[in-house]
User: What shape does this take?
Amino acid sequence: MLTIIGCGNLNRSDDGVGVIVARMLLEKYTGQPPEDTQIFDAGTDGMGVMFQARGSKSLIIVDASTTGSDPGAIFEVPGHELEGKPPDSYSLHDFRWDHALYAGRKIFKDEFPDDVQVFLIEAKSIDLGLELSKEALEAATIVAERISDRIASHAE
Assistant: This one.
């Protein structure tokens, strides 16, 4: 199973870019991705990422980044380089997808994917707003196409 998960907050401008990519892919496949592929909009639900990834062979996560790079820059990073131990907290709000990768591997062991790729798209703004910047939207289109190519090769 190939699982694609878009992350982000649609109310914070470019922070919603991962969700937009997931929606682009779902629209392309009219809500029915090819067999052995699933696409989710996880929003900001790190626990959801962990449970949706369980049982998958491969996982792709898409989210925004704020590294100070040019807006719309696309980074593709192996998941093991980004996974991080969750903070000592009693709030699920603090549990993000990078924590989900770490915890999922510890909790689910062989049921959690080893093959994890993360696409990060540099945000121009994560201020309150409902629209993506031109740069983030262009990058989202590129990332959606790259993931579509992976879906096609996975289906073969």
Observations:
- The chain has one domain: 2-155.
- The CA atoms of residues 37 and 113 lie 14 Å apart.
